[in-house]
């Protein structure tokens, strides 16, 4: 988990430094945001990193949980922000058989 990777850093100081270096989003060449903050927004190009829950981990649990449902909805929100190009981390590219298995127990 990313938090543990940077646990010994002064996170508030790091956030301040990043904010000091940033420009308004309309002027930015690159926007780094969360799935939550992306709701209602759109960009021509979106890249989904690997910090969402692993879909195969959800499926192996064989039961629907509130967390799993929320994570799937958030991943859906993030993916649907792209108007032209979407880059997905390979862990979200699933084979057709696995998708059919998921459809049996996930209700959207």
From TrEMBL:
InterPro entries to which the protein is assigned, alphabetical: DNA_helicase_UvrD-like_C, DNA_helicase_UvrD/REP, P-loop_NTPase
Keyword ATP-binding listed: yes
Superkingdom in the source lineage: Bacteria
One Pfam family per UniProt: UvrD_C
GO BP, one annotated term: double-strand break repair via homologous recombination
The organism of origin for this protein: Helicobacter apodemus
Boundaries of every UvrD-like helicase C-terminal domain copy: 31-88
Protein's name in the database: UvrD-like helicase C-terminal domain-containing protein
Keywords annotated in UniProt: ATP-binding, Helicase, Hydrolase, Nucleotide-binding
Chain segments annotated as coiled-coil in the UniProt record: none
Taxonomy of the source species: Bacteria, Pseudomonadati, Campylobacterota, Epsilonproteobacteria, Campylobacterales
Alphabetized GO MF terms: 3'-5' DNA helicase activity; ATP binding; DNA binding; hydrolase activity
